[in-house]
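Regression test case RT-17, inverse folding.

Input:
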């Protein structure tokens, strides 16, 4: 499975070709060694041959790319999944006011992000309020999947939501997220901390719903180390990102229906960012 915690060589080659189309086997071998130190060049050729036989990869003059037919099939499959799982009858049951928070545990960033965005869309479907407030220490979404994040932002726009995202940091990787919001689907505030550093790290508030992601301190430090280590495009490569988003940890996602807490959170955004006060 792509983006699994321990991808096989052929899966990693697909990920690398998604980022580096037109690469030679030697170039792919060099990139793959960042994840698999022991992988040999003959092994890369062998896996590329298998992928070519299955129509996943095409080769032209010793350079490899993903087959367009396969890419289009994958995109169509992704579209069907996205459409199906945002229908009202399959929306995740959200807690009622006064009920205890619902909680889920995940073991990597790549695992939590799809469910996080899914729940935000559920909140939007079940709330009459059309303003979404989000705060994150660092932006992850575009690292997991730029294509899926683009779809999410367009879905939020189609739901006529005003969407504010405050990011505590202003690092190179956080600034890359600006490429995702060029369509105006979201208003982005970089380097703007809404909450005390020890309180909130990843939070979404929409209507009376409050969604949080709790991150253990060692992994918070790992996140800071990763974002600090990437200062330019030269220091960013697919293997490094894959290692980070699939690194095993424990992330707890919780959601509650708490009007008083939601109002307090919104007031924080209003006061610090100068946003319009909610009705």
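Golden output:
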């Amino acid at each position: 499975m792509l983006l699994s915690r321990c991808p096989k060589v052929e899966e990693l080659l697909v990920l690398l070709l998604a980022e580096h189309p037109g690469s030679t086997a030697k170039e792919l071998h060099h990139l793959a060694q960042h994840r698999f130190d022991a992988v040999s060049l003959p092994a890369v050729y062998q896996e590329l041959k298998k992928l070519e036989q299955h129509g996943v990869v095409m080769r032209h003059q010793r350079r490899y790319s993903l087959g367009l037919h396969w890419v289009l099939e994958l995109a169509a499959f992704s579209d069907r999944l996205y459409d199906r799982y945002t229908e009202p009858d399959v929306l995740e049951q959200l807690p009622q006011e006064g009920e205890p928070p619902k909680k889920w545990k995940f073991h990597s960033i790549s695992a939590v992000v799809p469910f996080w965005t899914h729940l935000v869309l559920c909140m939007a479907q079940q709330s009459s309020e059309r303003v979404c407030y989000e705060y994150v220490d660092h932006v992850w979404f575009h690292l997991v999947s730029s294509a899926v994040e683009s779809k999410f932002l367009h879905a939020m726009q189609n739901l006529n939501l005003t969407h504010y995202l405050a990011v505590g940091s202003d690092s190179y990787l956080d600034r890359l997220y600006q490429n995702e919001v060029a369509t105006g689907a979201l208003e982005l505030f970089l380097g703007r901390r809404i909450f005390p550093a020890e309180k909130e790290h990843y939070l979404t508030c929409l209507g009376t719903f409050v969604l949080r992601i709790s991150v253990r301190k060692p992994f918070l430090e790992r996140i800071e180390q990763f974002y600090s280590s990437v200062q330019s495009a030269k220091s960013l490569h697919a293997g490094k990102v894959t290692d980070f988003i699939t690194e095993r940890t424990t992330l707890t996602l919780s959601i509650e229906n708490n009007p008083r807490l939601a109002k307090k959170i919104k007031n924080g955004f209003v006061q610090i960012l100068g946003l319009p006060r909610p009705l």
